[in-house]
Amino acid sequence: MAPTDGDITHTGTPDGSVQAVILVGGKGTRLRPLTLSAPKPMLPTAGMPFLTHLLSRIGAAGITDVVLGTSFKAEVFAEHFGDGSKLGMRLSYVTETEPLGTGGAIRNVLPELTADTILVFNGDVLGGTDVRAVLDTHHSSGADVTIHLVRVGDPRAFGCVPTDDDGRVTAFLEKTQDPPTDQINAGCYVFKRSVIEEIDAGRPVSVEREVFPGLLAHGRHVHAHVDTGYWRDMGTPEDFVQGSADLVRGIAPSPALSGPRGESLVHEGAGVAPGAVLVGGTVVGRGAEIGARARLDGAVVFDGAVIEAGAVVERSIIGFGARIGPRALVRDGVIGDGADIGARCELLRGARVWPGVTIPDGGVRFSTDV
Ligand code: GDD
Ligand code: MG
């Protein structure tokens, strides 16, 4: 059984000179319909809300004072994490009534910030970055802002960040079709508090499209910390499935997970019938049922879902309480909470089924044999 997030305590030497801010106010549109009912950082990954993995990484670096910048479904975070004491942390929440964007969200939490050094994280990044090393780079260069960068095969979906030979950032190009380098913004920054004070208050501001280009245009020192650790933005179904499987298999690090890891993770109260095959980092949520001879490969099955006998689920997310009928096939799909997929249906290549929808037996096929 995986630990619940109540089992986690920070392990680093406490460092009160640094506070962390996590941006969790996005709507998670690319993960709909799952994000209709839960904000993206609260979706279960390897048995706990995704945000628990990020919080445990911050705690492991000795940073215990964390502010969540919330907007969409703001109340869900405090309901789950409370004041953070169960994690050995001090959590506070600042909610935007209207979304202020990434830069506006950082500016909006300023009243909670007392430290001079502020670490900011996008709330959907799974990674193994050494947070202390990012802070060391920031302090030794004396920069106004330090940005954590990683290298990816296709930078177009990210912020592209060229640097010079001294490691100084020379430009910030958010989601450009013509990226000049494979270095991208990994969604972790170190700010001097005074730089956050300079961001306009009370209006939407993008840190990527406005704050960073503005600092560079004024000749301010923005530095890069490049590393090669595990890194994945969990914002799309493909990445969510892959990141979840990597956590289950131990490819993605998380201080929140302990014990041996393997091809699958089955949580308490779940039932797996004889002959079912669970591979590829499959995770089965609490109280879920997997029928005889079902085959799950890289499947993310949320709590209470049912996969009937002989069904096949590959690289797909099955929402809370959804049912996949006998001998149905779901490949690269997202099935919303409580949806009911009839026997022998085939849902392939990015299919998304909205919550509560019923598809009758044999109702969707990609082939003519039944
Ligand atoms: N509080 C608040 N308010 N948070 C927000 C808002 C807002 O208005 N808008 C977005 N966020 C949060 C999201 O919840 C997420 O955790 C983070 O900010 C980044 O938003 P995404 O929507 O996930 O952005 P992205 O993945 O397209 O791009 C960003 O991340 C990439 C790395 O993962 C950018 O920062 C890119 O430059 C970067 O490469
Ligand atoms: Mg993202």
From TrEMBL:
Spell out the Gene3D superfamilies in the cross-references.
Hexapeptide repeat proteins, Spore Coat Polysaccharide Biosynthesis Protein SpsA, Chain A
Which Pfam families does UniProt cross-reference here? GMPPB_C, NTP_transferase
- Give all residue intervals belonging to the Nucleotidyl transferase domain: 20-247
Q: Which InterPro entries match?
A: GMPPB_C, Mannose-1P_guanyltransferase, NTP_transferase_dom, Nucleotide-diphossugar_trans
Instruction: Give the superkingdom in one word.
Output: Bacteria
Record-annotated Mannose-1-phosphate guanyltransferase C-terminal domain positions: 262-357
State the similarity comment: Belongs to the transferase hexapeptide repeat family.
> What is the protein's name according to its record?
NDP-sugar synthase
